[in-house]
Design goal:
Strand content: 15-25%
Structural class: alpha+beta
CATH class of the domain at 54-125: Alpha Beta
CATH architecture of the domain at 54-125: 2-Layer Sandwich
Number of helices: 4
Distance between the termini: 64 Å
CATH superfamily of the domain at 54-125: Sporulation related repeat
Radius of gyration: 31 Å
Order of helices and strands: HHEHEEHE
């Protein structure tokens, strides 16, 4: 390792200070040109998102297991109950089939009784708040 003389240390310090002083950050001025329809689309999306209340609806879980079995269960369910929506979610380590978007517990329990006739291991999932 080389040892620098005091004059070289001062010289390097001055160079580093000068370089650091001349470094500038990006300018704060930003010009954004966007299509006026973009803001309209954002407003429409905000309206739709406020009307969707996925956490405030009751769902019924009809299956929990492997992926292929979950897909088969969902397709069988959709054939039999075409008016009730269903989806598959992955919750480690299982795939779960959830059906319905019921606003009230009473509505969910009525459908639960009907679905229980065909699917044995079903239960109601309460909304999270």
């Amino acid at each position: 390792m080389r040892i620098l003389t005091p004059s070289k240390k001062v010289f390097l310090t001055l160079i580093m200070t000068t370089l650091a002083y001349n470094i500038n950050a990006q300018d704060q001025n930003l010009t954004l040109n966007q299509d006026p329809k973009f803001e309209q689309l954002l407003n429409d999306k905000r309206k739709i998102n406020t009307s969707l209340t996925t956490n405030e609806t009751y769902k019924i879980q009809i299956f929990s297991g492997k992926s292929e079995e979950a897909k088969k269960t969902l397709s069988d369910f959709k054939r039999e109950y075409s008016d009730i929506d269903g989806t598959i979610i992955f919750n480690t380590p299982n795939y779960k089939v959830l059906v319905g978007n019921f606003k009230t517990r009473i509505e969910a329990e009525r459908n639960l009784v009907e679905i229980k006739k065909k699917y044995k291991s079903v239960f109601l999932i309460k909304p999270t708040k």
